[in-house]
Amino acid sequence: MSSEFQSVSRIPIRIELNQASELEGEFRRHLSPLTIKKLLGSFPICGRINSYDGKFIYVQVDLQLGSEKPVLSFKKGDLAFSPAGNFLCIFLCDATLKQKLNLLGRVTSDNIDILQSFKVGDYLSIKKSLN
Asked: Which end of the chain has the smaller Cβ count within 10 Å, N or C?
């Protein structure tokens, strides 16, 4: 198989923190195809980091989207979208929430723990990776 092959269902993304640290991740189209299509159309997503109870960090997104295959339980590194809050989040630990979110994919980098060191107000950017 060619090294140029890129999966249609797995979309590589790059997450930048304060334009200094980088993480790799991927959207998995089968998890929430409509949500992912809309998010990709609004890339890059940039904004200030917020935090929810130490469970995840998130950034507001200017999109109105509905629920799509929503789930309550998440693993460390999962990427999800909140239709109620219009934000994209990255889970810092395994968590079960009271509100269902659209699961999008996950962070694939081993250095995910760098997210623990960032504070509310730091800058986050998510864009499609060129890999």
From this structure: N
